[in-house]
Write a structure and sequence with these properties.
Blueprint: H1 31-44, H2 47-55
Length: about 55
């Protein structure tokens, strides 16, 4: 990630760490229900499922 004065050396031989954030928004639900729905989605989605979402 290039930010301000932080300019890392970009080289295909150096590993990179990628982090993806998945929002679990459920508009219209009460906060407790939204948290429960997000937790359920997190636990019911496989690694492969998230991989497919990221690629898309």
């Amino acid at each position: 990630m290039l930010t301000g004065r932080h300019q890392p050396i970009l080289d295909p031989k150096n590993p990179a760490v990628l982090i993806f954030y998945v929002p679990f928004y459920q508009p219209g639900l009460a906060v407790k229900a939204e948290v429960a729905a997000g937790r359920a989605e997190l636990f019911l989605t496989s690694y492969t499922g998230y991989e497919k979402q990221i690629i898309q």
